[in-house]
Design a protein that fits this description.
Helices cover 33% and strands 25% of the residues. With 317 residues, it is an alpha+beta fold. It starts with 11 loop residues before the first helix and ends with a helix. It binds 2 DNA strands through β5 and α7.
DNA sequence: GCGACAG
DNA sequence: ATCTTGTCGC
């Protein structure tokens, strides 16, 4: 059907390695340079995270990537980096690259993949249906992911709406190939979650993240809903975009772009930020989360979170 | 010191 | 999200 959703999962971590490997000896780049080459300078922190991780291939010249100030950081790792840069003819002084402009490499021959992903999100937003399915949901599923380095452990926990009992649970495990980047959460968590989502009539999926409360109105709940064609609701623990009308209230509308896009459900200090994902109205999204709310978190989400943590701990015991 | 954008 | 000891509170 829609070919744009069946493309292979993006290996952004591999692309970051590729980009860093393009920096010639004797030159340096900044984390922001690589992020910009990949299509979004906002991803510079993620680039830094990936290049600092212990799991990276040893041949990747991570020492050639520095802060925008030219600084290389402090500590034992920086000592080694300074040594390698010195061997390559880079002048350092007080832990900072001298003449950064002259030694700077930014001509990366690589696809700005994040630009393409933003376009895909725009497409998801256009396809998202913010009206209720005719059928009233009888089961509420919760989806969550936990991590151990680049190992992802996902879980789904399905609650019967009448009895409140958990009637089905499954888990999955896979390697992560996309770092956490705000507004691109889908590309990190969809791969581990995909196999847990079934198109079962009467089941609505609560996702740990936002629906339309997203800069492009395409948060992970919207994305999963449209891509896998299931009803979804976003329920996040903190806000990404939008403004809460009354933070003090137990329940308050959240405005985005001049309209009410979501709702805050507060329970003491904790709050759930709810927004529709797909095939669900804001009204129903709030009703579902509200009735399942347990200490500030919808029960199926809490259970999925616990389950994902359990399998992760078992795997690393 | 300011900004601080889900997990 | 994860890293982590003790600490605060019900």
């Amino acid at each position: 059907m829609s070919a744009c959703f069946s493309e292979k999962d993006i290996d952004l971590i591999g692309l970051i390695y590729e980009a860093a490997s393009m920096i010639p000896s004797g030159m340096v780049s900044t984390y922001g340079d690589i992020a910009a080459a990949l299509g979004d300078k906002k991803a510079s922190r993620a680039v830094g995270d990936v290049l600092s991780r212990g799991e990276r291939p040893p041949e990747v010249p991570t020492h050639r990537v520095v802060y925008s100030t030219g600084e290389i950081g402090r500590g034992p790792a920086a000592e080694l980096r300074a040594k390698r840069l010195d061997e390559e003819g880079i002048q350092l002084r007080n832990g900072r690259v001298q003449g950064l402009a002259a030694a700077r490499f930014a001509d990366f021959d690589i696809e700005p993949v994040l630009v393409r992903l933003r376009k895909e999100q725009d497409d998801i937003a256009e396809r998202a249906v913010l009206r209720d399915d005719p059928q009233e949901p009888c089961r509420i599923a919760g989806l969550d992911v936990s991590y151990q380095g680049d190992d992802a452990f996902a879980a789904v926990s399905i609650m019967d709406r009448r009895t409140g009992e958990i009637v089905e649970e499954r888990t999955s495990r896979c390697k992560v190939r996309f770092p956490y980047i705000p507004t691109y959460l889908t590309y990190r968590e969809l791969p581990p979650l995909r196999s847990l989502v079934r198109d079962t009539p009467g089941t609505v999926y609560l996702v740990d993240g936002h629906g339309v409360l997203h800069p492009r109105r395409a948060g992970i709940a919207s994305h999963i809903g449209v891509a896998l064609d299931v009803p979804t609701v976003g329920a996040a623990k903190s806000l990404l975009v939008g403004e809460v009308d009354d933070v003090e209230a137990e329940r308050s509308p959240i405005r985005l772009g001049g309209e009410v896009a979501g709702c805050m459900l507060r329970h003491g200090r904790k709050a759930a930020f709810v927004s529709p994902g797909h095939r669900t109205s804001l009204r129903r999204a709030v009703a579902l989360c509200s009735e399942a709310l347990q200490r500030g978190i919808p029960a199926p989400l809490r259970r999925a979170h616990e389950l994902a943590n359990e399998v992760r701990r078992e795997a690393y015991a």
